[in-house]
Design a protein that fits this description.
single chain; alpha+beta; Alpha-Beta Plaits; 8-stranded antiparallel β-barrel; 39% strand
Length: 202
């Protein structure tokens, strides 16, 4: 995803990887120590997000220059070995997406929320989303990104940033947001996960 706050190349594909770890700090140390391996594999950037509600749950976003290279990296034996050594528990769940828009802040840790849902018409939903920029700002949202599923373009992942988790929780729970989602064609109930993000790195 492209950033307005730092000079990061816009990726062609974004992998959203959900995983569980035995202990966060050893896993994060291992992850940070293999930045060069990610860069060599064509990963343009990564963002680590730790669940605010489950200390063993982590969501990693990996931006790739092209789909084939990112798929190869995700399937590589070296990556599997690194994950095992750093304490990843079970098999990660990976969603490959097409980045649509990125207005996130990358220079510091922030509270975040992943909002995952399906929409009836993406263009109509996006117009409605854009029209609510003022409401997001009033609710404390300072940055956002949007991606669509590669395999299912009706699947939309919205990433919201704020200075505090309390602000994000209140915004996500508001009746106003629920009404706006219904009006813009969101299908069913969205899946929302709150996280603490870390500064973007290679």
């Amino acid at each position: 995803m492209h950033s307005t706050s730092t000079n990061v190349t816009t990726p062609d594909v974004l992998a959203v990887v959900d995983l569980h770890v035995a202990a966060f700090d050893p896993w994060k140390s291992g992850f940070d120590g293999h930045a060069s391996a990610r860069e060599a594999a064509g990963v343009l950037f990564s963002r680590v997000n730790r669940s605010a509600d489950d200390p063993t749950a982590v969501t990693v976003c990996l931006g790739g220059a092209d789909l084939a290279s990112l798929r190869a990296f995700l399937a590589s034996p070296e990556r599997a070995k690194i994950m095992k050594e750093s304490g990843v528990v079970g098999a990660p769940t990976t969603t490959l997406t097409t980045p649509v828009e990125d207005l996130t802040l990358r220079d510091r840790p922030l509270a975040g929320a992943f909002v995952r849902h399906h929409v009836a018409d993406f263009d109509a939903w996006k117009r409605g989303f854009d029209a609510r920029a003022g409401a997001r700002a009033k609710g404390g949202v300072v940055g956002h990104a949007i991606a669509r599923g590669k395999d299912d373009p009706a699947e939309v992942i919205v990433y919201l940033q704020a200075e505090s988790l309390a602000a994000l929780r209140a915004f996500a729970a508001s009746d106003d947001l629920k009404a706006a989602m219904a009006a813009t064609g969101v299908i069913g109930a969205p899946r929302v996960s709150f996280v603490q993000s870390f500064a973007t790195q290679p």
